[in-house]
Amino acid sequence: MIQRIQSIYLLVAGIISGGLTFLFSLWSNSQTNAIYILDLFSGNSILEKSIPVLFFISALVSFVTIFLFKNRQLQFVLNRLNILINLFLLGVLIYLSQTLSGEALVSEKGIGMFFPIIVILLLVLANRAIKKDEDLVKSVDRLR
Questions:
Q1: What are the φ and ψ backbone dihedral angles of 8, each rounded to 5 degrees?
Q2: Distance (Å, rounded) from C-alpha 80 to C-alpha 130?
Q3: What is the secondary structure of the chain as a DSSP string?
Q4: CA-to-CA distance for 3 and 139, rounded, in angstroms?
Q5: pLDDT tens, 46-87?
Q6: What pLDDT is stored for residue 74 in this prediction?
Q7: Which residue has the higher pLDDT, 85 or 22?
Q8: What whole-number distance in Å separates Cα of residue 3 and Cα of residue 142?
Q9: Distance, CA of 113 to chain centre
Q10: d(CA 36, CA 114)
């Protein structure tokens, strides 16, 4: 049911979490080397290695949620879980951006740092549309 607006929101959220993270850098270090998502798998800490995993889990949950259109309550719960995953991801990204080595030198944050915020916004809009559908179905059931 891709024609429903919440499915489109979920599809865009999945594309951002799963696809666009490969194209845009998360940050640039002092040697002007752009750090992409796949570069973090070879990182030093567990937090750096968890960032790509969290992005992929968020994308997977978004794509799975699209196909649960018959079970709106489960779709709503999985969206809330995905929002929590992205909030945790945002917290990890903010923490790592504040503790980057060489932060006294000029380093630039990339657009990839804002992807969890965009995904959270899309998931909230999808939840609002799911709630609207659920209320519509309940109101029709009341009339029977």
A1: -70, -40
A2: 12
A3: -TTSHHHHHHHHHHHIIIIIHHHS-SEE-TT-PEE-GGGGGG-SSHHHHHHHHHHHHHHHHHHHHHT-TT-HHHHHHHHHHHHHHHHHHHHHHHHHHHS-TTTTS--EE-GGGGHHHHHHHHHHHHHHHHHHHHHHHHHHHHH-
A4: 22
A5: 888 888 899 999 999 999 999 988 888 999 999 999 999 999
A6: 93
A7: 85
A8: 26
A9: 11
A10: 14
- Give tens-digit pLDDT for 86-136: 999 999 888 887 776 655 444 566 677 888 999 999 999 999 999 998 888
- In the sheet that 34-35 helps form, which strands lie side by side, from edge to edge? 34-35, 27-28, 108-109
Tell me the residue range of the domain where 139 lies.
5-143
Instruction: Give the CA count within 13 Å in the CB-facing half-sphere of 90.
Output: 14
How many angstroms separate the CA atoms of 92 and 80, rounded? 18
- How far apart (Å, rounded) are the C-alpha atoms in residues 9 and 135? 19
Q: Identify which has the larger pLDDT, 127 or 27.
A: 127
Q: Which amino acid is at 42?
A: S
Number of domains in the chain: 1
